[in-house]
Write a structure and sequence with these properties.
Shape: elongated
Helix content: 40-55%
Order of helices and strands: HHEEEHHHHEEHH
Number of helices: 8
CATH architecture of the largest domain: Orthogonal Bundle
Distance between the termini: 55 Å
CATH class of the largest domain: Mainly Alpha
Number of domains: 2
CATH topology of the largest domain: Lysozyme
Strand content: 5-15%
Number of strands: 5
């Protein structure tokens, strides 16, 4: 069974866009609700609660929340990211009082650890979603990060700017259409008289 510590929970909350001022309290709530156990499940009484934030799917709540959270099955709430996304929607519609551990004050036992974890998330910049596949260093101290599996072959006799431009304009290089004349724009940006030919 996967168990997350306060730092991992705070990082997850930050990644999912929780306001920084809510991260300490929400981290403490998760610890009080589940002890950080991603597979925590409570089927007792009026509960049928899943995961980190013990998202309740009992009775009529279940079908409505399945639709609200875009779930195919309730057990998806054992996934920590899915659970945190659901918790964010619950927080937005019901506030902190949606969690019994907040109303009872039980979350306060975990607040010192949670505050420390939240401070660490402020100090740590978020990692980019896309990781570079290759980093190429070239003479002259210029470094290029290549995404999408681009594996160009460099001709050492070729002007580096011209090579980069040709690589960008290559039909096999992944691109996003921004509605600009990229050929004219890049040719001008690299200070070339004319676009390179293949």
């Amino acid at each position: 069974m996967s168990q997350l510590n306060p730092q991992q929970i705070a990082d997850l909350l930050k990644q999912q866009g929780f306001p920084q001022d809510k991260i300490p309290t929400m981290t403490a709530i998760a610890m009080a609700e589940s002890g950080g156990r991603t597979q925590a499940f409570n089927p007792e009484g009026l509960d049928k609660s899943y995961g980190l934030f013990q998202v309740n799917m009992h009775g009529g709540l279940g079908p409505a929340r399945m639709k609200q959270f875009g779930l195919q099955k309730e057990s998806q709430l054992f996934d920590p990211t899915t659970n945190v996304k659901a918790a964010k929607q619950i927080l937005g519609s019901q506030g902190l009082g949606a969690w019994s551990v907040y109303k009872s004050g039980k979350y306060k036992e975990f607040l010192p650890q949670a505050q420390q974890a939240a401070q660490a998330t402020q100090a740590t910049p978020q990692q980019p979603q896309q990781q570079p596949q290759d980093v190429a260093a070239v003479p002259g101290g210029r470094t290029f990060i290549l995404f999408g599996g681009v594996q160009p072959q460099v001709d050492p006799k070729e002007n580096l700017d011209r090579f980069i431009l040709k690589t960008i304009l290559n039909p096999d290089t992944p691109k996003i259409d921004a509605g600009l004349n990229s050929l004219a724009l890049l040719t001008k940006a690299f200070g070339l008289d004319q676009a390179p030919q293949y």
